[in-house]
Amino acid sequence: MASLSSLCSSSPSLNPKQSICKTTLNPSRLKTSLAYPARTLLTTTRTLLTPTRSIARDIPADLSKTNDNLPNKPKQLGLEKDPNSLWNRYVDWLYQHKELGLYLDVSRIGFTDEFVSEMEPRFQKAFKDMEELEKGSIANPDEGRMVGHYWLRNSSLAPKPILKTQIDKALDAVCDFADQVVSGKIKTPDGERFTQILSVGIGGSALGPQFVAEALAPDNPPLKIRFIDNTDPAGIDHQIAQLGPELASTLVIVISKSGGTPETRNGLLEVQKAFRETGLDFCKTGFDLRTSEMSAVGLLPAALQGIDIREMLAGAAVMDEANRTTVVSIDSYISIP
Ligand SMILES: O=P(O)(O)OC[C@H]1O[C@](O)(CO)[C@@H](O)[C@@H]1O
Q1: Distance between CA atoms of 76 and 122, rounded to whole angstroms?
Q2: Ligand 1 atom 11: the closest Cα is on which residue?
Q3: Which of 208, 241, 285, 301 could make a disulfide contact with 293, Cβ separation 3.0–4.6 Å?
Q4: pTM of whole model > 0.80?
Q5: Global ipTM
Q6: Is 148 within 8 Å of 296 (Cβ atoms)?
Q7: β-strands 145-146, 102-105: how paired?
Q8: pLDDT tens-digit profile of 291-324?
Q9: Which atom of ligand 1 has the smallest separation from the CA of 204?
């Protein structure tokens, strides 16, 4: 059985030197660190903060002064008012992907048929560029980087066999680690199950996991997740205070693609301090990754919440397939009968 101490020292699958994405795509690495409490001498003195009320709620907006009342406002082409035209436009422009149960209604966006025609060459260029990206073209010339997001969803698309192997191995490692945490094989140093995840990261290193947690996590996930995604000291204190005694069974995940973002480091230092103040050690391990919601950065928090990440990837691959169209027209949309 994997133990926490072995994990903290050198778990082979999580060893930075064996990172999949680090050596795969470019030297710039995303670092994801895991930290665990080492003791449960919990004597927190932090108190919950009283939520403040937004001042905007106290000042009613004057809705009589909308843009519609401004003189000389140019008529926005493409915004139909007639109910029949609106319905036809809806029927023409509603996108539906039956397998995914996805609907996208762009009919209320104020573009005209002429605009769509004018943009056609640019659409075609975008489709071509996407095709090249999937094949491994350099998308970031400064850093000589390929963009492998599509391969994460379907590793057989990776342009080199070694990339495929590395992607598959990383996915296995994430699944294995998450399974062991969720099943309780990997425990806190006191032999308790982990109950909480605290994700520390900012901007792109927080938004994907936040979105997935909101959209896909079960109502009662095996581990609940919370985020420190800004530098607001009161907000950080609030997150830590809300953990209460469960700080002792919290798995901290620190995400940063550069590894040098001051805000993320501040968050990490604050969490470390909270551990220290409550008598908990903050032992670290880490692995280097590429930044993408569909890389370990997003997959690990998702798997720890009980989300079937292989299914999530399969769904994304189906959406990728749908996006490989080269047609932007009402003909490519499914009409409402
Ligand atoms: O992932 P890193 O390197 O910590 O960088 C985070 C920063 O990168 C961005 O995600 C994109 O530039 C910002 O929103 C954020 O401040």
Answers
A1: 22
A2: 204
A3: 208
A4: no
A5: 0.95
A6: no
A7: unpaired
A8: 678 888 899 999 999 999 999 999 999 999 998 8
A9: 10
